[in-house]
Amino acid sequence: MRVGVGILGGGTVGGTLARKLIDDQAVIAAKSGIELDLVRVAVRRLDKARSFPGDYATTDAAAVVDDPAVRLVVELMGGIEPARSLVERALSAGKPVVTANKELVAAHGPSLISKAAEHGVSLLFEAAVGGGIPLIRPLAESLAGERLTRVLGIVNGTTNYILTAMESQGRPYREVLEEAQRLGYAEADPAADVEGGDAAAKATILAGLAFGSWVEGDRVHREGITDIQAADIAFVRRLGYCVKLLAVAENTDGGVAVRVHPALVPLDHPLASVRGANNAVFVQGPAVGELFFMGPGAGGDPTATAVLGDVIDAAREVLSGTRVVPRIQFGAGRARDFAEVETQWYVRLEVVDAPGVLASIAGAFGRHGVSIKSVWQEGRGGAATLLVVTHDAAEADHRRAIEAIGGLDEVKQVAATIRVIGPDV
Amino acid sequence: MRVGVGILGGGTVGGTLARKLIDDQAVIAAKSGIELDLVRVAVRRLDKARSFPGDYATTDAAAVVDDPAVRLVVELMGGIEPARSLVERALSAGKPVVTANKELVAAHGPSLISKAAEHGVSLLFEAAVGGGIPLIRPLAESLAGERLTRVLGIVNGTTNYILTAMESQGRPYREVLEEAQRLGYAEADPAADVEGGDAAAKATILAGLAFGSWVEGDRVHREGITDIQAADIAFVRRLGYCVKLLAVAENTDGGVAVRVHPALVPLDHPLASVRGANNAVFVQGPAVGELFFMGPGAGGDPTATAVLGDVIDAAREVLSGTRVVPRIQFGAGRARDFAEVETQWYVRLEVVDAPGVLASIAGAFGRHGVSIKSVWQEGRGGAATLLVVTHDAAEADHRRAIEAIGGLDEVKQVAATIRVIGPDV
What we know:
The first copy, chain A, is α/β, with parallel strands linked by helices. Chain A contains 14 helices and 17 strands.
């Protein structure tokens, strides 16, 4: 029961997977009954040192896809093109595809899944979200019968590493980012991670599988961590919170809302304990209650393990001739306008310390339908810092209130605004 | 794409599932493309009120299995017989079977899985372990390529509910058990839960899927919570621990060890935060690192959700004519002798408060190869309580040390012994 495997991409995950396929062939065969044969690995350059023997490497990715000995294709190149064309080429040739490419799946998931189904094969992407944590399969299969209401979690390891380091060491964002880049936790170009794009792609995929409706990328609200200040991390800790970059997907009567933004998380919440590059996701539904998944969100080994689980499945498909994953049905799904989404906010205001300041601030919030939950004052003598946490109110109301407050004479600066999640999530 | 479903067992989970199949048919069809038709439900008695219309009910379970309109069978009766015979009857007729029966799967998993494979159908049992938490599928499929080393967790909701209540309310075991029975958290006959049998069955299944070797029931070390005293729960809290009933499966060079026993868990460990009837499981392996799954461990709704996920899969199998789950291969697997397994122990000793007591106790531990990590003394004036936590040592050495200590003149009583897990697990 041998199945030939072709890999597109010889980077960290691709290299680790190639190594695993060579070294662990007997172990995998003993457990699964399937012998996986690495055939070829498409790489960008042949002159780079690899963790697998050089004679597997080729720069001709299309030839790997077309090789008759390659019965299933693993796409680990990342990015949209040429990944998309190569994946379509493999599917059209009736070869199942395993990918860890969240950008590709988020942008073209439904069409690629349809194309796979058309040709009677599967597109598997367990490693696209949550690295080594099994999330896709539970959502698509184990929870297929549940009307899920919310998926919420930490799905980007780089930003969690940075926020954790900022908190534990009291250091500013820029400094921690540079260190993370030196240590390999952040890319040379960190934009996709720190600006929330990576998390948004993953949130789109999770929402699609959880609710059966795919939200277009431009309907996903996206804020990164680039504006998070060390001062706020220290302030909110005293209020009983830490700061995390959250991906939130909610299915309400008003539609599906998918968003990525930093949020204050209560310190006794399980998400607060997710440190370093780990990922963790909550899944909520009326019948299943609350499920929590935590594990390594990135890294060659965990991600390659998730890919390998999919590869074994795809190999079963090749051997049996029948698709191993269900055809997922995507409905139209109404995207909810982010302006309607209700959250709490934390607002840091630099104000003049004069009588009546709090009253005019509370008045401005109130006029826009936002009520205050708690206020904390720091400093005295001319200038003061006010830390305000509001009750739930619509995004649009919050923004209008903040604009009005920024215009008050007593307010020198709206120094920070960060959303807050309650203890019940 | 209609598929007829027969259910064996009309209790909490069976009733909830029947209700779901009737009420949520359209939702399930929209998400999965499959229309599930409830055909019949086998019950023990017809004169009991059910959550589904009475005309579905029959007392003839074999007739449900044999009904040509029933294309897949859901076994929710529990116990070994007649469940085993009925499951075999269905598999032999080429009907896939979904079961939540941990006792049956633990005792006869490999032979039932073989029989299913023989007839080209699947036996699915996601709900047998961890209620609504997807665990079986990740272990059997997503992590199929990983050499897992350890699975450890809280897999019995009843005992966790009791231990949580004993801790938070400072009440004795017997009293809390009786309350749990009144509230429906514990059975009228609680033996299977409180004596560890239920957890042991689940541990066997988890170990079998994680390591590919099925450990015979009599090789699973099993201790329940019936001897846990409120006093120890209070004492260990001051030492920074809580008490949990743990299922532990380890794959070492010396073989596979599966055990269920109460253990002290550090208060800052994620398992310490698992309260009430929740379940949580850690899965560890060299590549994947550490994965953590948490959710509702029991209850009609979460369990029925897990069953429904399997039912949708089984229906896909019926429609495609090809098995949806991989044939799991079980090796011979050497069971490791529990006497060799190394753990730490917490020991509470009632001693005479005289000079030299600690020296003779330390001497007795040391003569049996057990070294002491910490000692805490309570009380003064004639009698004292010593709380001892040891370093890792083999089970057999610990037992011999405790026997020797029990025989010392200065020791009035070995009042409690509970194993301890370290902060690294």
